Amino acid sequence: MKINKLELKNYRNIEYMELLPCDGVNIIYGENAQGKTNILESIFLFTGLKSFRSSKDSEFVSFGKEFSKINVDFSTALRDQTAEIKISDRRRAVLNGVTLASPTALMSKFPASLFSPGFMTLIQNGPTERRKFIDSAICQIKPKYALLLSEYNKLLKQRNAVLKDSENYKDTKLFLDCINEAFSNLGEEIYKERKIYLDGILPFVTEIYEGLSSGKEEISFSYIRKGDKTGKYLFSEIIKSHETADISAKMTLTGPHRDDIDININGVSARSFGSQGQKRSAAIALKLAEAEVIKNFIGEQPVILLDDVMSELDAKRQDYILNHIKDRQVFITCCEPGSILRMSEGKTFNIKDGRLL
User: Fold this and answer.
1) Cα separation of 165 and 172, whole Å?
2) Are the C-beta atoms of 8 and 17 separated by less than 8 Å?
């Protein structure tokens, strides 16, 4: 897939802009707060997912304007297509002239993989960020997975509410007996989907990280299931064995909502011992590998969006990103024009005050 034209109107600090990218690497450069990230964000909204920066649709609209509008002309393996997102009090989406019930209907129609500085929390922070990464990645290729997560979280909320508020052991036990089967089935399905995804992404992550590190470092990761380090038990068995502990703690202590991904570089924890460059390289490798999984699953190469990706990377790692990501359309934002000099081919856009120079 590739974007042929992007048109923005009243989008954040951009009054009007028309961007005509090339099929390969596109660098958007300029000083901070000029609108570089706004361009990437506007593209990402066509995935049907929420913004990686804001949860309020009203923040997309330029100050003093009633609405903002984003139009994109793009090509897939099947045909040329058009899409539009109009934002006022909420987002409304149109694909090939057909108004969609919700922007989430764009999922899998416009695949994209995004790296932003905030994604560094995947490596640096606790397990919540790593679970968020894998769940968002699966949703892009399997939209029904979002419904699975929603149903699980509803039952989890009910389960925790009863555990927290009930003072009667027998009543609590009775409720758990009623809910555990459905809860366990959903949890087991989420675990299976996550495992399938991680097994599929691992070869791409290792290959890309090897390229970023010039073959000097090795990355590995494994899925850590709370309450079962061996990975041998069904969730129904795990939840049953922890039932007394759950009642005592007044919360659900095991399940997909507590699982983690252990990421290592050269055999040691990237979170605890990795340098900033290694952590950033690991995060980049995961996002670029995500794009490969999307391609293999839906048969379409996603657009790659890399926001402020060059920071804290040495020249060799920057060179890999600029010149060795082949056969796909890439958008990169950066502040340092010097990075552009290392790019062998592609297109550059200089932005200032929300306008292309």
Assistant:
1) 9
2) yes
Residues facing residue 350 across a β-bridge: 29
Q: Tell me what the mean pLDDT of segment 323-329 comes to.
A: 82
Residue 283 contacts residue 115 (beta carbons within 8 Å): yes
How many percent of the chain have pLDDT more than 70? 98
* DSSP per residue, 78-117: S-EEEEEEEESSSEEEEETTEE-S-GGGGTTTS-EEEE-G
Structure tokens at 106: 């764009």
Q: Convert the pLDDT of each residue in 138-197 to its tens digit.
A: 988 888 999 999 999 999 999 999 999 878 888 888 888 899 999 999 999 999 999 999
DSSP for 142-179 reads: -THHHHHHHHHHHHHHHHHHHHHH---HHHHHHHHHHH
In angstroms, rounded to a whole number, what is the distance separating the alpha carbons of residues 305 and 330? 6
CATH architecture assignment, domain 127-264: Up-down Bundle (1.20)
Q: Write down the domain spans for the chain.
A: 2-111+300-356, 127-264
**2-111+300-356 has CATH 3.30.70.3420 classification:** no
Contact 212, 166 (CB under 8 A): no
| pTM for this prediction | 0.83
CA distances from 184 to 187, 190, 256 (A): 5, 10, 10
What is the pLDDT at residue 231?
78
Encoded tokens for 187: 């949890």
Smallest CA-to-CA distance from 39 within 353, 333, 343 is with 333
Domains 2-111+300-356 and 127-264 share a fold: no
In angstroms, the CA 162 to CA 247 distance is: 9
Which one, of 335, 323, 213, 332, lies nearest residue 275 by Cα? 213
Contact 81, 96 (CB under 8 A): yes
In which element (H, E) is residue 238 found?
helix 235-241
Listed as own residue / partner, the contacts of 120-127 with beta carbons closer than 8 Å and 24 or more positions apart are 120/279, 120/280, 120/283, 122/283, 122/286, 123/263, 123/270, 123/271, 123/274, 123/279, 123/282, 123/283, 124/271, 124/279, 127/224, 127/258, 127/259, 127/260, 127/261
